[in-house]
Amino acid sequence: MAENTKIEWCDHTFNPWMGCTKVSPGCAHCYAETRMDKRLHKVRWGKGQPRQRTGVANWKLPLKWDGEAQKATGAFDESFFNQAKLSQKRPRVFCASLADWLDHEVPTQWRVDLLNLIEQTHNLDWLLLSKRPESWSARLHEAMGGGSELARRWLNGEPPANIWVGTTVENQLLADERIPALLRIPANVRFLSCEPLLGPVNLSAIPTGEGHGLNEAFPRITMNPLRRALRDAPHVHWVITGGESGPNARPMHQDWARSLRDQCAAASVPFLFKQWGEWRPADDRDSDRPHWVGIPDGSEEDFSDSPMVRVGKKAAGRLLDAVEHNEFPQP
Ligand code: SF4
């Protein structure tokens, strides 16, 4: 449940528990469910099914990684922490690949223990990705009630320096719902995982939610959460994009990925193109292969202007218009 990972944008994955409930189209072919429920029968997926906490030895691994990172970078002190908090030298830990850290069906004590572990591991940057960013406040209040000092400070507007908080955005509908919720979370680094990307996403008119709760008649302010980087307002610092992999993978139109790339470039926001997934755009090599020109689930777009071929994740690779995009937030 903890491992050196093959995920391009982190150094380790850590799973404090396993199990989840599907919440949106990106969950349709959930890799974690396929592996841990259907194949290995370690946990049952879905609402009302008990989640499985991982073992004591697994929970010790981040402490080991933290010790290794400290040896590599020198003794911890406050100035180092502040200066190096976004450095590429700091190992990044993805939490969690087999669950959602804001899942409300997880016992509060487990989340308290996770936040305590994060607090103890100053030399690691924790990437907390969720499809439930709107529930951050409720889950943190529960954790604070359970004794988490980190949760108390975070709710008080003091985001932990070693947490990057992210949300998954599969299409425009979810961008409109989840990005405003993400922007409401106090954070030093916020990121979007646009994977599996199932439709076009225009970030120029995301409702930020400003004014909500103050006055129902207050007009919604629309603003590009990338361009907000140019002023002192909550914004998105990093965008990861990728297509779906696995047996039933849906294709990603190349224009959807190009558009996110170009929006990030225009706003000077780092962009990482993780993978095409199972499908890549057809080219001269593919005259004998069957092409996808249909309409994937969760999208109104068709592919007749850009046929896709299924070649497998490895062969599809991660070049977008012949370029590898590997950008990260910088200190
Ligand atoms: S939120 Fe993540 S772990 Fe949970 S069902 Fe969806 S894809 Fe799977």
From TrEMBL:
<feature type="compositionally biased region" description="Basic and acidic residues">
    <location>
        <begin position="281"/>
        <end position="291"/>
    </location>
</feature>
<protein>
    <submittedName>
        <fullName>Phage Gp37/Gp68 family protein</fullName>
    </submittedName>
</protein>
<dbReference type="InterPro" id="IPR011101">
    <property type="entry name" value="DUF5131"/>
</dbReference>
<dbReference type="Pfam" id="PF07505">
    <property type="entry name" value="DUF5131"/>
</dbReference>
<feature type="region of interest" description="Disordered">
    <location>
        <begin position="281"/>
        <end position="308"/>
    </location>
</feature>
